[in-house]
Each structure stands twice: as structure tokens, then as C-alpha cells.
Please model this.
Amino acid sequence: MKKIITYGTFDLLHYGHINLLRRAKKLGDYLIVALSTDEFNREKKKKECYFTYEQRKKLLEAIRYVDLVIPEDSWEQKVSDVHEFRVNTFVIGDDWEGKFDFLKEHCEVVYLTRTPEISTTQIKEQLKDKK
Ligand code: C2G
Model:
């Protein structure tokens, strides 16, 4: 079984996220999503989420491509995750191109193109403008 892992906040889930998860799953048989916790988002990623971790987790678990959701609560957990879950491939959007090449000694590393015209930030801004 070829295991894939990806990481993210996945707030206000949209089709850009789904495009990423669909292509990530295509690379193997089992997709793990390490989902940024509320604390990790607030303290380390400086992101304020609309949905809580539990709500975002439920949304991801409803997606056919996702097999397991685990918490991401530190930048440093990736190497241990790869070994603990016997991951073959790390996947993330190419907005992170090169940033996780250190994982290449532990697993395959794949950067997938982002879906260009959509982002959680853009959704929030457009909703604000509509008020
Ligand atoms: N994504 C995408 N296209 C978009 C928006 C997002 O392909 N239009 C991808 C991102 O590249 C990422 C995933 O969807 O691979 C999740 O996006 P975010 O929730 O913004 O994740 P991010 O904050 O980049 O977290 O340790 C890694 C971080 O946790 C990644």
C-alpha cells in the first residue's frame, strides 16, 4: 500500500483544496491529511480560522480521497510522521516549492500546482466586500 501525506489548514474548504487532495490520492492508495490545529494556526501560522479544528476535520473526513486525518501542531513533526505512518510520498501545493526538500531523504516529495484563482483569504475578502 502506497501511503501519501499532506499538510494544511483547509479552512473554508474549497475546490482548490479538493483539486489538491484528488491529485494527491492519485499518487497512491492511502491519503493522510495532517490538519493544522487551532493553536498551531493561531500561534505559528498566524491564521485565524473560520472553522474549528473539529469542524475542519469532519469536512475532510467526508471527502472520498481522504483516509485519515491527524493533527498538525508543529512545523517539526513531518519527519516523525513519515516514519510513524510509513509514508511513501509527501505532497503539498507548489506555493511551498522547495521548502520541504529536506524530506527527500525520508520519502518522495511532490509539489502540485495550486489552483490559481481561489484561496481562503480571497473568499473572506470577497465576503467582506459584499457587506
Ligand atoms: N491549495 C491549492 N490551491 C489553492 C489553495 C490551496 O492547491 N487555491 C493547497 C495548498 O497548496 C496546500 C493545501 O491546498 O497544499 C492546503 O492549503 P492551506 O490550508 O492554505 O495550507 P497551508 O496553510 O499552506 O499549510 O506544514 C504545512 C502547512 O500546514 C501547509
User: Anything to note?
Assistant: Residues 6-10, 16-17, 19-20, 36, 45, 72, 92-93, 95, 114-115, 118-119 surround C2G (CB under 6 Å). The two ends are 49 Å apart (CA to CA). DSSP finds five helices and five strands in the chain.
